[in-house]
């Protein structure tokens, strides 16, 4: 589904990604973990070209991403941000239907129908006519997930989706993500929620200093990490 | 000290200046707005030469006195163009060009104040740049832009009084002429001041109405 080959990213003199290669299969759920500043966000943002890789290649569904086809590829890659970024001047429903109508050219009726289905799925149908500033953080993030899903993407990218939330709201968002994983969505999740990663992910990618230090199943990674760096990291966070 | 009886017959003459002042301010505001939007687009765009031009334009018009710009257009441009410009068109052009510099800064700042994440979220959904600007960024930026824009037009209305230096018969100039004719400057100048003050109050009130309406849509 996604193939990353020798991905490098440099900001000025700061080499943030030092040659990352990996392959993600359809329906796979990947948790990307690692210390702060290790390049997790940058890795994710290179996949949908919010950052331009300095070198290396990324392909999605067999298509190599270039300047030219990036808009088309992005329709296929949903992204959820730490700080939601819902459109504050649009209602929940309008947030969901905007891109499907304007980007995909779907009719308004159809867009509303599938948006309402999605809102039902994330448990926020009642809030469809509210403005985002009337929602709690957890509700905002669930709307943001639904908004990304409304484009009917084949892969979902999450960048620390629960890090900006109060603890009591983390659960409801993780529950929605778990459902999504069980429904067969391909997902790449940058997260600090180790329990969630252990339970839901098929594979853990451990990043450190811009390198992919470990690529393992959650069982291997959490019980017997191979590298010293992963051991140290786990000691700190667990 | 006050003796309005000598200037009373001239009050209608001074009041007629309101039309001239408004004519200058309204047309200058339109030029300022249209040109300001274009310049702002250049500034936020990625095409370097246009960016340089817009920044250079702004720094020139903000970095030199408005009076100088007016005098250049009225007295010096004919030297280049080979024909004379009437005071009112010259004033409209001068204020319009000057205002554009300030308007473009207001718009640029208003757009930049919108969280960068909003752009990223739109990009991530595959929304093309022009639609993102029109549907996502500008509706949010307008809330930052409108109050400052209103201030700019209030300032423009007051500052328009300096067209008196190129002889346009606005409120200010008329008050000055009446003063010269009656040998009493205090009263006509006070009348002119009163007119400007009322105009400012009206504009301020309009601005507050617009802001209130915007806030209601939140
Ligand atoms: N736009 C940018 N310009 C310059 N440097 C950047 C930029 N974005 C990220 N960096 C740098 O790249 C490095 C990796 O950043 P990144 O955000 O990918 O880390 P991360 O693993 O996501 O960290 P965190 O867990 O704190 O989110 C950091 O040192 C950061 O300072
Ligand atoms: Mg990050």
TrEMBL record, chain A:
Residues 2-234 form the ABC transporter domain. GO terms for molecular function: ABC-type amino acid transporter activity; ATP binding; ATP hydrolysis activity. Keywords: ATP-binding, Nucleotide-binding, Transport. Gene3D superfamilies: P-loop containing nucleotide triphosphate hydrolases. This is L-arginine ABC transporter ATP-binding protein. It comes from Ureibacillus chungkukjangi.
TrEMBL record, chain B:
The chain crosses the membrane at residues 20-42, 54-77, 189-207. SUPFAM superfamilies: MetI-like. CDD domains: TM_PBP2. GO terms for biological process: amino acid transport. InterPro entries: AA_ABC_transptr_permease_3TM, ArtM/GltK/GlnP/TcyL/YhdX-like, MetI-like, MetI-like_sf. This is L-arginine ABC transporter membrane protein. It is found in: Cell membrane. Belongs to the binding-protein-dependent transport system permease family. HisMQ subfamily. PROSITE patterns: ABC_TM1 (PS50928). Residues 18-207 form the ABC transmembrane type-1 domain. Coiled coil: none annotated. The keyword Ligase does not apply. It comes from the Bacteria. One of its GO terms (cellular component) is ATP-binding cassette (ABC) transporter complex.
